[in-house]
Design goal:
The protein has about 260 residues and is mostly helical. The chain is globular, with a radius of gyration of 18 Å. Helix 8 crosses helix 10 and helix 9 runs antiparallel to helix 10. Strand 3 and strand 4 form a beta hairpin. The protein has a four-stranded mixed beta sheet with strand order 1-2-4-3.
Length: about 260
Amino acid sequence: MEEETPAVSMLQSAVRTHANNLATAGQTPRLAQLLEPFESAMCAADRSADLNRPVQQIRNEIGATFDGFCHFWSHVPWFHGTPSIHFFKNYVQDTDATLQAFGGYLGLNKGQLVTYNIDGAPPGLKSHLDAPNYFYDDPYCWSLGFLKNQGLDGGLISNYDAWKAIGQEECRKIQAEYNFSDEEMTVADHVDYNPTISARSKCSAGLGPAGCTPITIREYKKHAYLKCLMGDESPEMVYCYMRGCLLPGNYIGHGSDCAD
Protein backbone atom coordinates (compact mmCIF):
# COMPACT_ATOMS: atom_id res chain seq x y z
CA MET A 1 0.00 0.00 0.00
CA GLU A 2 1.29 3.44 -0.91
CA GLU A 3 2.03 5.83 1.93
CA GLU A 4 -0.73 8.36 2.44
CA THR A 5 0.42 11.83 1.41
CA PRO A 6 -0.39 15.04 3.31
CA ALA A 7 -2.50 16.16 0.34
CA VAL A 8 -4.60 12.99 0.45
CA SER A 9 -4.99 13.33 4.22
CA MET A 10 -6.13 16.93 3.73
CA LEU A 11 -8.66 15.88 1.10
CA GLN A 12 -10.04 13.07 3.25
CA SER A 13 -10.31 15.36 6.26
CA ALA A 14 -12.10 18.06 4.28
CA VAL A 15 -14.50 15.52 2.77
CA ARG A 16 -15.27 13.96 6.15
CA THR A 17 -15.96 17.37 7.72
CA HIS A 18 -18.28 18.46 4.94
CA ALA A 19 -19.98 15.04 4.87
CA ASN A 20 -20.70 15.30 8.59
CA ASN A 21 -22.17 18.78 8.09
CA LEU A 22 -24.45 17.57 5.30
CA ALA A 23 -25.43 14.46 7.25
CA THR A 24 -26.39 16.65 10.21
CA ALA A 25 -28.66 18.53 7.81
CA GLY A 26 -30.28 15.24 6.78
CA GLN A 27 -28.58 14.93 3.38
CA THR A 28 -26.76 11.98 1.82
CA PRO A 29 -24.18 13.69 -0.37
CA ARG A 30 -22.38 12.55 -3.52
CA LEU A 31 -18.60 12.93 -3.67
CA ALA A 32 -18.84 15.95 -5.97
CA GLN A 33 -20.99 17.67 -3.34
CA LEU A 34 -18.39 16.95 -0.70
CA LEU A 35 -15.71 18.63 -2.76
CA GLU A 36 -17.84 21.65 -3.70
CA PRO A 37 -16.46 24.09 -1.08
CA PHE A 38 -12.86 23.35 -2.01
CA GLU A 39 -13.45 23.44 -5.76
CA SER A 40 -15.70 26.46 -5.73
CA ALA A 41 -12.98 28.47 -4.00
CA MET A 42 -10.47 27.33 -6.60
CA CYS A 43 -12.51 27.16 -9.82
CA ALA A 44 -15.78 29.12 -9.60
CA ALA A 45 -15.11 31.75 -12.27
CA ASP A 46 -17.44 32.88 -15.04
CA ARG A 47 -16.03 31.60 -18.34
CA SER A 48 -19.06 32.44 -20.48
CA ALA A 49 -16.86 34.22 -23.02
CA ASP A 50 -15.01 30.96 -23.67
CA LEU A 51 -17.98 28.61 -24.05
CA ASN A 52 -18.25 28.88 -27.84
CA ARG A 53 -14.53 29.07 -28.50
CA PRO A 54 -12.56 26.01 -29.65
CA VAL A 55 -11.00 24.54 -26.54
CA GLN A 56 -7.70 23.94 -28.34
CA GLN A 57 -7.45 27.69 -28.92
CA ILE A 58 -7.85 28.33 -25.19
CA ARG A 59 -5.31 25.61 -24.40
CA ASN A 60 -2.82 27.27 -26.73
CA GLU A 61 -3.31 30.64 -25.05
CA ILE A 62 -3.00 29.42 -21.45
CA GLY A 63 -0.34 26.79 -22.01
CA ALA A 64 0.73 23.86 -19.87
CA THR A 65 -1.10 25.07 -16.75
CA PHE A 66 -4.53 24.80 -18.42
CA ASP A 67 -6.99 22.70 -16.41
CA GLY A 68 -10.21 22.73 -18.38
CA PHE A 69 -12.19 20.97 -15.67
CA CYS A 70 -11.42 23.86 -13.34
CA HIS A 71 -11.60 26.54 -16.06
CA PHE A 72 -15.17 25.55 -17.00
CA TRP A 73 -16.22 24.26 -13.58
CA SER A 74 -19.04 26.80 -13.17
CA HIS A 75 -20.64 25.79 -16.47
CA VAL A 76 -20.51 21.98 -16.56
CA PRO A 77 -21.88 20.12 -13.51
CA TRP A 78 -20.28 16.81 -14.51
CA PHE A 79 -16.83 18.41 -14.30
CA HIS A 80 -17.29 18.80 -10.55
CA GLY A 81 -15.00 16.54 -8.54
CA THR A 82 -12.32 16.28 -11.24
CA PRO A 83 -10.18 19.33 -10.26
CA SER A 84 -9.73 17.80 -6.80
CA ILE A 85 -8.53 14.52 -8.29
CA HIS A 86 -5.75 16.29 -10.14
CA PHE A 87 -4.96 18.75 -7.37
CA PHE A 88 -4.55 16.02 -4.75
CA LYS A 89 -3.28 13.42 -7.27
CA ASN A 90 -5.62 10.80 -5.88
CA TYR A 91 -8.28 8.83 -7.77
CA VAL A 92 -11.25 7.99 -5.58
CA GLN A 93 -12.11 4.27 -5.75
CA ASP A 94 -15.57 3.59 -4.33
CA THR A 95 -17.69 1.11 -6.28
CA ASP A 96 -20.86 1.58 -4.22
CA ALA A 97 -20.70 5.37 -4.43
CA THR A 98 -20.07 5.19 -8.19
CA LEU A 99 -23.04 2.89 -8.83
CA GLN A 100 -25.38 5.05 -6.76
CA ALA A 101 -23.92 8.43 -7.73
CA PHE A 102 -27.01 9.81 -9.43
CA GLY A 103 -29.75 8.55 -7.14
CA GLY A 104 -32.67 6.25 -7.87
CA TYR A 105 -30.62 3.10 -7.31
CA LEU A 106 -32.83 -0.01 -7.27
CA GLY A 107 -30.24 -2.58 -6.19
CA LEU A 108 -27.96 -4.92 -8.09
CA ASN A 109 -29.72 -6.39 -11.15
CA LYS A 110 -33.10 -5.13 -9.94
CA GLY A 111 -33.63 -2.84 -12.91
CA GLN A 112 -34.99 -3.67 -16.35
CA LEU A 113 -32.73 -5.84 -18.54
CA VAL A 114 -32.23 -4.09 -21.89
CA THR A 115 -30.31 -4.94 -25.06
CA TYR A 116 -28.52 -2.10 -26.83
CA ASN A 117 -28.91 -1.43 -30.54
CA ILE A 118 -25.69 0.39 -31.43
CA ASP A 119 -23.93 0.11 -34.75
CA GLY A 120 -20.59 -1.57 -34.05
CA ALA A 121 -21.65 -3.12 -30.73
CA PRO A 122 -21.36 -6.90 -30.28
CA PRO A 123 -24.58 -8.89 -30.66
CA GLY A 124 -26.73 -8.84 -27.56
CA LEU A 125 -24.85 -6.14 -25.61
CA LYS A 126 -27.05 -5.74 -22.56
CA SER A 127 -27.26 -4.58 -18.95
CA HIS A 128 -29.70 -4.11 -16.10
CA LEU A 129 -30.87 -0.51 -15.64
CA ASP A 130 -30.42 -0.40 -11.88
CA ALA A 131 -30.41 3.43 -11.81
CA PRO A 132 -31.70 6.14 -14.17
CA ASN A 133 -28.25 6.92 -15.64
CA TYR A 134 -27.40 3.33 -16.64
CA PHE A 135 -28.97 3.43 -20.14
CA TYR A 136 -26.43 6.18 -20.96
CA ASP A 137 -23.38 5.31 -18.88
CA ASP A 138 -23.26 1.55 -19.52
CA PRO A 139 -22.97 1.72 -23.32
CA TYR A 140 -20.89 4.91 -23.07
CA CYS A 141 -18.29 3.23 -20.87
CA TRP A 142 -18.36 0.13 -23.09
CA SER A 143 -17.80 2.25 -26.23
CA LEU A 144 -14.69 3.79 -24.68
CA GLY A 145 -13.30 0.41 -23.61
CA PHE A 146 -13.12 1.51 -19.98
CA LEU A 147 -15.09 -1.29 -18.29
CA LYS A 148 -13.30 -4.04 -16.42
CA ASN A 149 -12.28 -6.87 -18.76
CA GLN A 150 -11.85 -4.47 -21.68
CA GLY A 151 -8.10 -4.19 -21.32
CA LEU A 152 -7.37 -1.56 -18.66
CA ASP A 153 -5.05 -2.53 -15.82
CA GLY A 154 -7.02 -1.48 -12.74
CA GLY A 155 -4.01 -2.15 -10.55
CA LEU A 156 -2.54 1.13 -11.80
CA ILE A 157 -5.38 3.34 -10.50
CA SER A 158 -3.46 3.91 -7.26
CA ASN A 159 -0.48 5.14 -9.30
CA TYR A 160 -1.61 8.64 -10.27
CA ASP A 161 1.06 9.35 -12.88
CA ALA A 162 0.79 5.95 -14.59
CA TRP A 163 -3.02 6.08 -14.75
CA LYS A 164 -2.97 9.65 -16.04
CA ALA A 165 -0.53 8.62 -18.78
CA ILE A 166 -2.91 5.84 -19.84
CA GLY A 167 -5.72 8.40 -19.99
CA GLN A 168 -3.64 10.58 -22.27
CA GLU A 169 -2.89 7.62 -24.54
CA GLU A 170 -6.61 6.75 -24.72
CA CYS A 171 -7.24 10.32 -25.83
CA ARG A 172 -4.67 9.98 -28.60
CA LYS A 173 -6.41 6.80 -29.78
CA ILE A 174 -9.79 8.53 -29.96
CA GLN A 175 -8.43 11.44 -31.98
CA ALA A 176 -6.48 9.11 -34.30
CA GLU A 177 -9.74 7.27 -35.01
CA TYR A 178 -12.06 10.25 -35.54
CA ASN A 179 -9.88 13.32 -36.16
CA PHE A 180 -12.31 15.76 -34.54
CA SER A 181 -11.86 19.32 -35.76
CA ASP A 182 -11.09 22.20 -33.39
CA GLU A 183 -14.42 23.80 -34.36
CA GLU A 184 -16.34 20.73 -33.15
CA MET A 185 -14.73 20.93 -29.74
CA THR A 186 -16.41 23.69 -27.74
CA VAL A 187 -17.83 23.45 -24.25
CA ALA A 188 -21.12 24.95 -25.44
CA ASP A 189 -21.54 22.11 -27.93
CA HIS A 190 -20.50 19.53 -25.32
CA VAL A 191 -23.22 20.73 -22.93
CA ASP A 192 -25.92 21.48 -25.50
CA TYR A 193 -25.55 18.13 -27.28
CA ASN A 194 -25.65 16.04 -24.11
CA PRO A 195 -29.48 15.78 -24.06
CA THR A 196 -29.32 14.42 -27.61
CA ILE A 197 -26.82 11.78 -26.51
CA SER A 198 -29.14 10.90 -23.64
CA ALA A 199 -32.21 10.62 -25.91
CA ARG A 200 -30.34 8.53 -28.48
CA SER A 201 -28.91 6.28 -25.76
CA LYS A 202 -32.44 5.73 -24.50
CA CYS A 203 -33.49 4.90 -28.06
CA SER A 204 -30.65 2.36 -28.37
CA ALA A 205 -31.85 0.74 -25.15
CA GLY A 206 -35.31 0.28 -26.65
CA LEU A 207 -36.82 2.94 -24.42
CA GLY A 208 -37.41 5.70 -26.98
CA PRO A 209 -40.41 6.49 -29.16
CA ALA A 210 -41.05 4.73 -32.47
CA GLY A 211 -38.73 5.94 -35.20
CA CYS A 212 -36.19 7.39 -32.77
CA THR A 213 -32.49 7.73 -33.68
CA PRO A 214 -30.07 5.38 -31.91
CA ILE A 215 -26.75 6.55 -30.54
CA THR A 216 -23.47 6.10 -32.42
CA ILE A 217 -20.05 5.28 -31.03
CA ARG A 218 -18.74 8.46 -32.66
CA GLU A 219 -21.15 10.57 -30.59
CA TYR A 220 -19.96 8.91 -27.39
CA LYS A 221 -16.32 9.39 -28.28
CA LYS A 222 -16.85 13.01 -29.30
CA HIS A 223 -18.33 13.63 -25.84
CA ALA A 224 -15.34 11.91 -24.27
CA TYR A 225 -12.76 13.70 -26.38
CA LEU A 226 -13.89 17.11 -25.17
CA LYS A 227 -12.87 15.89 -21.71
CA CYS A 228 -9.52 14.90 -23.19
CA LEU A 229 -9.05 18.53 -24.17
CA MET A 230 -9.90 19.55 -20.61
CA GLY A 231 -6.88 17.52 -19.47
CA ASP A 232 -7.22 13.77 -20.01
CA GLU A 233 -9.60 10.83 -19.65
CA SER A 234 -8.13 9.28 -16.51
CA PRO A 235 -11.00 10.30 -14.15
CA GLU A 236 -13.55 8.94 -16.66
CA MET A 237 -11.56 5.71 -16.83
CA VAL A 238 -11.82 5.31 -13.05
CA TYR A 239 -15.55 6.06 -13.10
CA CYS A 240 -16.22 3.45 -15.77
CA TYR A 241 -13.85 0.84 -14.38
CA MET A 242 -15.32 1.07 -10.88
CA ARG A 243 -18.93 0.95 -12.05
CA GLY A 244 -18.96 -2.00 -14.44
CA CYS A 245 -17.42 -4.89 -16.32
CA LEU A 246 -17.90 -6.72 -19.59
CA LEU A 247 -18.85 -10.33 -18.90
CA PRO A 248 -19.36 -13.37 -21.15
CA GLY A 249 -22.42 -13.09 -23.37
CA ASN A 250 -21.75 -9.36 -23.88
CA TYR A 251 -23.37 -8.59 -20.56
CA ILE A 252 -22.38 -5.40 -18.72
CA GLY A 253 -22.27 -6.27 -15.04
CA HIS A 254 -22.01 -4.05 -11.98
CA GLY A 255 -20.83 -4.24 -8.40
CA SER A 256 -20.33 -7.79 -7.15
CA ASP A 257 -20.90 -9.11 -10.69
CA CYS A 258 -17.41 -7.77 -11.37
CA ALA A 259 -15.56 -9.17 -8.35
CA ASP A 260 -12.12 -10.49 -9.24
